[in-house]
């Protein structure tokens, strides 16, 4: 079947008058302003979202530090008490013959030399900020203090690992 009705697409007439240089300049200016306003709007939006993220991270970091402080207070009190008892044990052992010391006294004071508590910091927020590069949201002094706190926590955990064998040996004796 042959179609006799064929549509023909005509191109628009491209012959037009030349524009004046002012019209070209006005078009350039409008495009330039549109791009610049888009750039400024994007920067403003990004700044607002970074500020919001910084608030969320700061409040989460503060909560982690409050939990660590609550965990460290009894931890420190226990070790202060333990140190005094171990000191008393050392004085008893150095002043008396080992066989003359009542076994209950040795057990009581020796118990604290072998007792051990672990401190596990709440560092999820800091580790997330460190791995994602979000520490830049915080002021430099706060970021430095948070990094220093993280270093101290890691150092404390390393020391606990090194001392765990000593605690086991003291408990055995």
Provide a descriptive summary of the structure in words.
With 173 residues, this protein is an all-alpha fold. The protein has a domain at 62-172. It has four helices and no strands. Helix 1 (21-95) packs antiparallel against helix 2 (103-114) and helix 1 (21-95) runs antiparallel to helix 3 (124-132).
Brief summary:
With 173 residues, this protein is mainly alpha-helical.
Name the features.
4 helices, mainly alpha, 173 residues
Low-confidence stretches: none
How far apart the termini lie comes to 107 Å
By DSSP (H or I, 4+ residues per run), the number of helices equals 4
Helix-strand sequence: HHHH
| Strand runs, count | 0
Q: C-alpha Rg, in Å?
A: 37 Å
Overall pLDDT score? 83
Give the proportion of residues in helices: over 70%
Q: Secondary-structure map with pairings?
A:
Layout: H1 21-95, H2 103-114, H3 124-132, H4 140-172
Helix pairs in contact: 1-2, 1-3, 2-4
């Amino acid at each position: 079947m042959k179609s006799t009705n064929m549509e023909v697409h005509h191109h628009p007439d491209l012959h037009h008058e030349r524009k004046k240089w002012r019209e070209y300049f006005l078009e350039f200016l409008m495009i330039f302003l549109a791009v610049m306003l888009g750039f400024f709007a994007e920067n403003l939006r990004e700044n607002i979202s970074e500020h919001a993220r910084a608030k969320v991270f700061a409040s989460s970091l503060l909560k982690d530090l409050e939990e660590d402080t609550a965990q460290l207070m009894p931890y420190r009190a226990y070790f202060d008490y333990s140190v005094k008892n171990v000191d008393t044990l050392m004085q008893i052992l150095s002043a008396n013959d080992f066989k003359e010391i009542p076994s209950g006294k040795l057990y009581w004071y020796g118990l604290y030399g072998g007792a051990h508590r672990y401190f596990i910091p709440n560092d999820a927020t800091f580790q997330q900020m460190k791995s994602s590069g979000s520490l830049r949201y915080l002021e430099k002094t706060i970021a430095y203090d948070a990094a220093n706190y993280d270093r101290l926590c890691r150092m404390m955990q390393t020391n606990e690992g090194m001392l765990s064998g000593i605690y086991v040996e003291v408990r055995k004796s």
